[in-house]
Amino acid sequence: MDKDVVLRRRGYILGISLREGSYAKVKSAYSERLKINVAIKIIDRKRAPADFLEKFLPRELRVLTILNHSCIIKTYEIFETVQGKIYIIMELGSQGDLLDFIKVQGALQEDDARKKFHQLSLAIKYCHDLDIVHRDLKCENLLLDNDFNIKVSDFGFSKCCSRDQSGQLTLSRTFCGSAAYAAPEVLQGIPYQPKVYDIWSLGVILYIMVCGTMPYDDSNIKRMLRLQKEHRVNFPRYKPLTRECKDLIYRMLQPDVNQRLHIDQILSHCWLQPKTQGLSSAVTDEVESSWRAEASCTPKPCSDRKSTAKLELQKEAPPKEQPETNLDEHTVQVAMQLEALGISNQKVAKKPERTPCSKQSPEKQT
């Protein structure tokens, strides 16, 4: 049955194509039931690779049943047809993605970057508190709603982390994501802490927000990795930034995973507070001396192409199953849809109440 007919019967009027790949595409549509525009991700099982169908797709669908945060793209419905097409009905990022926004508008002023990065950080804290990691954070996966609020999307590489007997998160061995946003430990192909990987990507994103360029040139991975391991972060002279903003970026782009900030430390950093307090002179001198030593690192402009360099996927041990808890109405609805697709919902946990991403964020979801 034609996809237009399938969607029409479910109350969706198909619109334009937003993204298209070899086995998946995203289209806009209007929901007669919800009375809003939505995005529909259509996955063709017959064209998708086996590794994606066996590992990444089930993980993504499980994660989507858990997430419920106003700074994360909402999932409304999931269903599959007998023809092997999976339909994921999602919230629409009506203003496009952050990378395209920066290409048109240029680097953001710090006040605007602070608001958007605060929204992003709250979304990642929400995920990390649930032991969910994204592992593909980049500007292309940050969508903007009608009011230009951040909405995190594309959880294709996400997973629910498992813990060992001591309660520590197990290391990940799936090396995925985009090279320009990847942490040095991931580029080196060694087992890594997935939450700490997300933090590095946040540092790259904030740098792009306020500088309008990439912090490292990913056309030469070997050189980029060397600069990262030397903790070189060069800020363009033509874009004056506050010391607090530079400090936050510098501490997120920390090659030592034991010294890299955690999400709670990011949210408590002085730059993200309503009234920032100046850094101590000792901290400022230490950080700025490192910045001055990094003049040889030339930032890479945000080009018209989107970063497509993917890291090689390697086999990873599956996370341990967790006991199922009570589910709210929305989770039960989507979990039942997953069960109809033949995917276990044992990972689904009870979702907390929807958390506003800022006082300025509208309650209504776009």
TrEMBL record:
Main localization of the protein described in the UniProt heading: cytoplasm
Catalytic reactions of this protein: L-seryl-[protein] + ATP = O-phospho-L-seryl-[protein] + ADP + H(+); L-threonyl-[protein] + ATP = O-phospho-L-threonyl-[protein] + ADP + H(+)
SMART domains named in the record: S_TKc
Listed SUPFAM superfamilies: Protein kinase-like (PK-like) (SSF56112)
Signal peptide: none
Key words of the record: ATP-binding, Cytoplasm, Developmental protein, Differentiation, Kinase, Magnesium, Metal-binding, Nucleotide-binding, Phosphoprotein, Serine/threonine-protein kinase, Spermatogenesis, Transferase, Ubl conjugation
GO terms, biological process: intracellular signal transduction; microtubule cytoskeleton organization; spermatid development
Segments forming domain Protein kinase: 12-272
Localization annotation: Cytoplasm
Alphabetized Pfam families for the sequence: Pkinase
EC numbers on record: 2.7.11.1
Superkingdom: Eukaryota
CDD domains according to UniProt: STKc_TSSK1_2-like
Compositionally skewed regions (Basic and acidic residues) per UniProt: 302-328, 350-366
Disordered: annotated segments: 298-328, 343-366
GO molecular function: ATP binding; magnesium ion binding; tau-protein kinase activity
Cofactor: Mg(2+)
CC annotations in GO: acrosomal vesicle
Family in the record: Belongs to the protein kinase superfamily. CAMK Ser/Thr protein kinase family.
Protein name as catalogued: non-specific serine/threonine protein kinase
